[in-house]
Amino acid sequence: xxxxxxxxxxxxxxxxxxxxxxxxxxxxxxxxxxxxxxxxxxxxxxxxxxxxxxxxxxxxxxxxxxxxxxxxxxxxxxxxxxxxxxxxxxxxxxxxxxxxxxxxxxxxxxxxxxxxxxxxxxxxxxxxxxxxxxxxxxxxxxxxxxxxxxxxxxxxxxxxxxxxxxxxxxxxxxxxxxxxxxxxxxxxxxxxxxxxxxxxxxxxxxxxxxxxxxxxxxxxxxxxxxxxxxxxxxxxxxxxxxxxxxxxxxxxxxxxxxxxxxxxxxxxxxxxxxxxxxxxxxxxxxxxxxxxxx
Length: 294
Prior knowledge:
By secondary structure, the chain is mainly α. Helix content is about 65%, strand content about 0%. It has 11 helices and 2 strands, in the order αααβααααααααβ. The termini are far apart.
């Protein structure tokens, strides 16, 4: 009897010791309970060799999950674009697409630059025929009607946007100044992979300021050259300013291709560098990696 009681007492002591060193959660539940650095399981003290191994595995799981959680909490949604900016942006995209398509149809009627018999302006698009799907209007008169009809909304949206920039003071965040030249050089190095870290910036980086300032200037030139072609007699002084009717056509045509190139680069950089800016241009709210103010 005495030996049996002693054996029973010894077994009871072993069970109590095992209970004291066992983890408070079963291994099958570690993955379900550990979801971030803030979870209590990430802060439990070690209680034995087995628990130490499980604690290390749990901390590795926490380290993998925590960066996304930290990013989500450190980037609150802020207001980035006013509704006027968003309206004029998307309306300009639609109207400008129609202007380009109808312009290509107009170009088909006389696919070169210069009076008949020459001399001609140098252009790789001489006698070019663009795909039917890329042209609007069907023929010269139809394309001219589309082109002139869309020109006025384009001008209206441009004036509305410029008016908002002046009234709100946001033109200061867009205008490229001489002091932005060093920053533009650093951004160029970053895009060419000559610099590893992204240079610090405000709402717009210096290269964006240069591009947006240039596009606004090109938009003004597109309108002026368009009027020089539209009314060469009534606005003879403007047509002469651009070198004559054929020269005005030439500059008007090439400004369009600069717009096309800018649009392609703009879309590529949005998805490659800051996809959150696309949502901001749709909803106005921004939750990304860059500041929304300078």
